[in-house]
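User: Before I run my own analysis I want an independent prediction to cross-check against. Here's the chain; please return only the structure tokens and, at the end, one sentence I can use as a sanity check.
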Amino acid sequence: MLTGNRLSQQAWALAPKLLEARACWLADERVHEVHPEVSFCALADGVPLAYAKKTWRGQHLRRSLLAQAGIVLPELLGEADRIPADDVLDAAVAAWSAHRIALGTADRVPEVSELDAEGRAVEIRF
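Assistant: Structure tokens:
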């Protein structure tokens, strides 16, 4: 890395899952990359959210944006109650993006996709 810093243990731990996701992406054109904060920004009319997703205000804002989009998360999630709240919110907004992709109404970053060595578009959908 140019910064002189090493990759964190968390980054190294993600490597097998990233390779698995890439294999799925290469095998199936229906697989798209979605980034929760990009999706939440889109829900907020293109305005980056002012509060971090791990804060009370940030979580409240994200739940409100989801509710405005018709996604109302229940108070009780059963087994998912053990999942950190920010991960639940990320999954919900990823589902919102997936729905838009399926409908053909999703946007992308960058607007004009670059192609990787395999000829697949490198982009984030939301």
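Sanity check: Residues 25 and 31 are 5 Å apart (CA to CA).
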